Amino acid sequence: MRIGDIPNKIVDFFKEVGLEIKKVNWPSRQETIKYTLIVIGVSLAVALFLGGLDIVFQYLLNSFLLK
């Protein structure tokens, strides 16, 4: 590969990227909102669960080991 070919290869790469982007099956706005709410809900549930475990272990540690 010659150094002079590099700009052409870069242009070809971005043309191919554009073609591939057109092939993507993008989700609808409704689907995006639904999945976003699911992710937020699951994240909150996991955070509450881990926070609850932290409180329980902190209580146990303070009650039994750190007297």
TrEMBL record:
<protein>
    <recommendedName>
        <fullName>Protein translocase subunit SecE</fullName>
    </recommendedName>
</protein>
<keyword id="KW-0653">Protein transport</keyword>
<keyword id="KW-0811">Translocation</keyword>
<dbReference type="GO" id="GO:0043952">
    <property type="term" value="P:protein transport by the Sec complex"/>
</dbReference>
<feature type="transmembrane region" description="Helical">
    <location>
        <begin position="35"/>
        <end position="61"/>
    </location>
</feature>
<comment type="similarity">
    <text>Belongs to the SecE/SEC61-gamma family.</text>
</comment>
<comment type="function">
    <text>Essential subunit of the Sec protein translocation channel SecYEG. Clamps together the 2 halves of SecY. May contact the channel plug during translocation.</text>
</comment>
<keyword id="KW-1133">Transmembrane helix</keyword>
<keyword id="KW-0813">Transport</keyword>
<dbReference type="InterPro" id="IPR038379">
    <property type="entry name" value="SecE_sf"/>
</dbReference>
<dbReference type="InterPro" id="IPR005807">
    <property type="entry name" value="SecE_bac"/>
</dbReference>
<dbReference type="InterPro" id="IPR001901">
    <property type="entry name" value="Translocase_SecE/Sec61-g"/>
</dbReference>
<dbReference type="GO" id="GO:0009306">
    <property type="term" value="P:protein secretion"/>
</dbReference>
<dbReference type="GO" id="GO:0005886">
    <property type="term" value="C:plasma membrane"/>
</dbReference>
<dbReference type="GO" id="GO:0008320">
    <property type="term" value="F:protein transmembrane transporter activity"/>
</dbReference>
<dbReference type="Pfam" id="PF00584">
    <property type="entry name" value="SecE"/>
</dbReference>
<dbReference type="GO" id="GO:0065002">
    <property type="term" value="P:intracellular protein transmembrane transport"/>
</dbReference>
<comment type="subunit">
    <text>Component of the Sec protein translocase complex. Heterotrimer consisting of SecY, SecE and SecG subunits. The heterotrimers can form oligomers, although 1 heterotrimer is thought to be able to translocate proteins. Interacts with the ribosome. Interacts with SecDF, and other proteins may be involved. Interacts with SecA.</text>
</comment>
<keyword id="KW-0472">Membrane</keyword>
<keyword id="KW-1003">Cell membrane</keyword>
<keyword id="KW-0812">Transmembrane</keyword>
<dbReference type="GO" id="GO:0006605">
    <property type="term" value="P:protein targeting"/>
</dbReference>
